[in-house]
Amino acid sequence: MNSPGGARGGGVATALVAMGLVVCAVATSSWGAAPVVAATPATWASVAAPAGTANLSFTDVACDAATCVATGYPCGVASCAGFIAGVILYSGDDASSWNVAATPSDAGNLSHVTCANSADCMAIGAAGPPAAAARAVVLITTSYGARWTAVGAPSASLSGVACVAYSQCFVDGATRTGVPVMFRSANFGATWSRERVPAPVASVGSIDCATMTDCLAFATAKVAPSALSLVTVNAGRTWRVGHLPATLGTIGSASCLSATRCVAIGDLAKGHAGVVTVTTNGGLSWKALARLPGALSMSGVSCYTSTSCVAVGAAAAAPAAPAIFSTSNQGAGWQSQPAPVGTSNLGGGVACEPSGVCVAIGQWFTYTGVAATDDGPYILVN
Question: How many domains does the chain divide into?
Answer without folding.
Answer: 1
